[in-house]
Amino acid sequence: MWNYEKRLQYPVKIKNTDPKLAQIIISQFGGPDGELAASMRYLSQRYTMPYKEVTGILTDIGTEELAHMEIVSSIIYQLTKNLTIEEIEASGFGPYYVDHTLALWPQAASGTPFTATFFQSKGDPITDLHEDLAAEQKARTTYDNILRLIKDPDIADPIRFLRAREIVHYQRFGESLRIVQDKLDSKNFYAFNPEFDR
Amino acid sequence: MMRNDREELLMYITTTSFAVDDVNLYLDTHPTDQAALEYYQKCNELRKQAVKQYTDYFGPLTANNVNVTNVWTWIDEPWPWEMGR
What we know:
The structure holds 2 protein chains of 2 kinds. Chain A is mainly α. Chain A contains 8 helices and no strands. Chain B contains 2 helices and no strands. Helix content of chain B is about 60%, strand content about 0%. By secondary structure, chain B is mostly helical. The chains are: A mainly alpha, B mainly alpha. Chains A and B meet through α4 and α8 of A and α1 of B.
């Protein structure tokens, strides 16, 4: 069960539209290392996770990723609000506009639609936590790449917040991996899969 | 604590909520850290007071916090993505 709070985790107040940049930043909504994939990854993995600390972290980080998806979506919404048809034509926003007008739709910057193949839920805690650690670093790199393209501080500010959260989540997943390994056979972490072998 | 300015109070809720969410993640992997537990309790209390005050003055942040009068105030503007302008 989730309870919606009518506020952003970090404020987004962008004064000037920029449809070119919106088409780049949308990758963190529906792209391969985006927030939607992050949330679905953790919220899918948690059911079979046998350790309560890690089930907790997957639930809570998966929930925070939904709030990050809302921040990214708000950035895109504000960057494309009230665009004129001339602005759409001049900025190369036409291909997106023809399918979605100014609505939000999860896709990568390349136009590739969101797909569940962006993430894995493997049913082995060591495997899944390595996926999660990698996912946080891939998202961090994507935000670093986005930040090099931004000149407007109104946009850079919330992007920097999101980037910093990737690093905190990476830390928490690292601690989760240590917790899992502490509960396994120290001579062979792969002796059995605690999500399957009984 | 009297905060009448909507934006200022919302920023205070954003700040205290962030502290709560961040220490929540830390406690998931450090469930017996006493200093973190105290910090959680302190920040959560400040957040709860601020949310109550916001609800009373400016309207509900969650649908189950609607103060019922003769109109359903949950759908009143602004939605969070609209607050920029």
